[in-house]
Write the C-alpha cells for this entry.
Amino acid sequence: MTSPRPGGTVKLGQHEIARIGYGAMQLEHVDTAAATAVLRRAVELGVNHLDTASFYGFTTVNKHIRDALHPYPADLVIVSKVGARRVDTPMRLALAQRPEDLRAQVHLDLTSLGLDRIPVVNLRRADQGPGLIAEGDQIVPLDDQLAELIALRNEGLIGAIGLSNMSTAQLRQALPAGIVCVQNAYSVLDRSSERQLELCAENGIAWIPYFPLGSAFDQIPSPTDHPVVQQLATRLDTTPAAVCLAWILAHNDHTALIPGTRTVAHLEQNLRTADIHLDTEALAELDNLTNPSRA
C-alpha cells in the first residue's frame, strides 16, 4: 500500500510531488548504511521529491542516492543543482557558472546518479549572497546559461529547468524558458523574496524555499528562536521548527519543502509537519512577524 504524500501534493512541471520532500545535502556526512536507511524510509513514507547536487561532496550524496534507491521508483523526482563544483580547499566550493561548466555538471549528475535524464535541474546564480559571488570569468549572462540548459533539455538530458538564488528581475527574464521551480532563501522571518513567490504562484511554478529555519551560513537567523514561534509551539504541542515549516505550507499552496536530516528519527519528525494545523489566530501571529518585501 502506497503511503500518502506528506503535506499533499504540488505540481513540479509535469510531476506531482509531495509538498514535504527531502533535501539530501546532509548525507555527505554519513556512511552508506545511514544514508540508505534515511532515503529508503523517506520513500516508504511517501516522499517522491529528492533534492541533491554533484557538489554535495565529490558526488558523495548522489552515490548514496544511487546505492539506496536504484533502480528508482517510477514516480521519484530527483532534482539537482548546477552552478558550483566541489574543490579540495578550505572553502570546499568554487563557482562553475559558464555554460560549458553547467553541461559538465549535468553529465556528472547523470553518471553518479545512474540516470539517462535528470527530471529537473536548478540553475544556482551567484550575483548575490548567501555564499560565493561571481567574479571575473564567472560573471555570465543569464541568457547564456538558460540557452545551455534549454539545449540540454532539447537533447533529453534534463527534463525541466529550475532556478535558485534569483532576483525578481531575473525570474521575469527567465520565464520564457519554461521554469518549473524556484529555490530562494525564505522563512517566516525572511520574506524578502515574497514577490518571487507571488510570481511563481501566478505562473504555476513551484516555490521551494531553502533556509526555512535559518542557517549558520552567512549568519542567517533562525525563526525557531523567535518568542512568538516558541509560544505557538508550546500551545500546539509541537516543535518551533514544525511551526515554521507549517507556516510556509499554509502561506501559499504553490510551496514545497525539502528539509534535510541525517537520521530516520528526525526525518519522521519533519514529515509530521504535515499533521500540524495552524488556526486563524496562529497564522495571524506568524504573518505579523515581519512585513514582506515587494522588491
About this structure: The first strand starts at residue 9 and ends at 12. Confidence is low (pLDDT under 50) at residues 291-295. The CA atoms of residues 48 and 75 lie 6 Å apart.
